[in-house]
Amino acid sequence: MDLKSKIILISGPTASGKSKFAVKLAKKIKGEIINADSMQVYNDFCILTSRPNAKDTTYIKHHLYGFHSVKKKFSTGQWLNIVINKINQQWSAGKTPIIVGGTGLYFKALIDGLAKIPAIPKNISSTVRTMHKKIGQKNFYEKLIKFDPKVKKFISQSDSQRSIRAYEVKKFTNK
Question: Dihedral of CA 150/152/155/160: which sign?
Answer without folding.
Answer: positive
